[in-house]
Design goal:
heterodimer, A: mainly alpha, Non-ribosomal Peptide Synthetase Peptidyl Carrier Protein, Chain A, 0% strand, B: alpha+beta, Peroxisomal Thiolase, Chain A, domain 1, 2 domains, four-stranded mixed β-sheet, 9 helices, 30% helix
């Protein structure tokens, strides 16, 4: 799954229009709550077959940081 | 094993009268709306025990309902298992208080088991062992929980998820023949203990003014170390790793494919988690129980409450082969097959 597809799925998780989600998108209390973190864990499990640390996800402040965590999880799996 | 088989004979639940609705939550936490809470959790309202109402009180009411239904005369109950993590006292065992209040005979064994979301399946496993070892013929398993008493009023995450409730379940000897309750698969991983815990109040950290002081923590939730803490994302990670393996092991022990299971009743943790597990396990919607809108997560009582409701609604019928799966605090997990 490439970055563009992951961004589309993250837009769904964050309940934002796809064209408003890029690696630089800032995460805040409005779009990055505990339910969004759960949805991201579910998306990583479903789409990539990996487990992403909930504690580290919770601390993310940008979409890029989420993508980095997913990339790291995929690398660890391989 | 001799000729005796154990079977799950009847279940009856009891919910306290108090309710915490989404409107109540939305009025206390103005950044949430009632509709948003329902959409995100699948929970509309949660039964909440009154300040003077303990797990024993809920358990006794559930037990009275079960016995009033005629499943077994009280004098023929010869073992009581009471599962809770919010007992009335450190000692005596709450099960002894319940034995007296339900009018069970003094020859009845009575013990507490401390387990959470997996507690019902653990209790069934113990009940089966007592029956099939011919130590007891009728085991009353009561699971009752009042987590609301542990939760800080300003912890919106935990208050949104948990409800209080109880269920009484009868496991009895039914003669020989095919296995009616089992096989069972159990598991534990105490490395997850810090992710769902009430840290202070027991012997490791006695209650003090300091550990009773509430502070603002993650996501704007307030709590002290005497309150319940749940790391939702890490619990979710544990669940999506552990539960599919557990289901596979139960099927392997049972020796039949998933298609032969008539109905799946998992611990009703939250709708989002259950939907993810159902999809991951490729279980058809019609065979998978999600029923927590009126109760929330009542911990060890969710599975029997859901079973009773499914039987009452006709989604479950006598003779159905049901897989029961509990998982959570500990970490602890257990799964089994039951023929109703």
């Amino acid at each position: 799954m490439d970055t563009r597809q992951l961004l589309a799925k993250l837009a769904d998780v964050l309940a934002l229009p796809p064209d408003q989600v890029s690696p630089g998108t800032h995460l805040n209390g409005d779009n990055w709550d505990s339910v969004a973190v759960l949805a991201t864990i579910a998306m990583a499990d479903e789409s990539l077959g990996v487990s992403v640390s909930g504690n580290r996800l919770t601390r993310c402040t940008s979409v890029q940081q989420i993508l980095d965590l997913m990339e790291e999880a995929v690398a660890q799996k391989q | 094993m001799g000729g005796v088989r154990a079977a799950l004979r009847a279940t009856a639940s009891f919910l306290p009268e108090g309710r915490l609705t989404n409107d109540d939550l939305a009025s206390q936490f103005p950044d949430w709306s009632a509709a948003k809470i329902l959409a995100k959790t699948g929970i509309a309202t949660r039964p909440i025990a009154a300040p003077s109402e303990c797990a024993s009180d809920l358990g006794v009411e559930a037990g009275r309902r079960l016995l009033a239904g005629g499943a077994c005369p009280p004098e023929e109950i010869d073992f009581l298992l009471f599962c809770t993590q919010s007992p009335d006292h450190f000692l005596p065992a709450t099960a002894c208080l319940i034995q007296d209040r339900l009018g069970l005979p003094t020859r009845c064994g009575a013990i507490d088991i401390n387990q959470g979301c997996s507690g019902f399946v653990y209790g069934l496993g113990l009940a089966k062992s007592l029956v099939e070892a011919e130590t007891a013929r009728n085991v009353l398993l009561i699971t009752a929980e009042t987590y609301s008493k542990f939760i800080h009023p300003r912890d919106k995450s935990a208050r949104t998820i948990f409800g209080d409730g109880a269920a009484a379940t009868l496991v009895s000897a039914v003669g020989g023949g095919a296995e009616r309750l089992g096989p069972f698969v159990f598991g534990s991983d105490g490395r997850g203990a810090p992710n769902l815990i009430v840290p202070a109040g027991g012997m490791r950290q006695r209650p003090t003014p300091e550990n009773g002081l509430a502070l603002e923590r993650e996501s704007g939730n307030w709590r002290s170390d005497q309150n319940l803490y749940m790391n939702g994302p890490e619990i979710f990670n544990f669940t999506i790793a552990a539960v599919p393996q557990l289901v596979a092991k139960v099927l392997e022990a049972w020796g039949r494919p998933a298609e032969d299971v008539d109905y799946f009743v998992f611990h009703q943790a939250n709708r989002f988690m259950l939907e993810h597990l159902r999809t991951k396990l490729k279980i058809p919607t019609a065979k998978f129980c999600i029923d927590m809108e009126q109760t929330g997560n009542t911990v060890s009582a969710t599975i029997p409450i859901a079973l009773e409701r499914a039987l009452a609604s006709g989604r479950l019928r006598s003779g159905y082969r049901v897989m029961l799966v509990g998982f959570g605090v500990g970490y602890s997990w257990a799964g089994c097959m039951a023929t109703l």
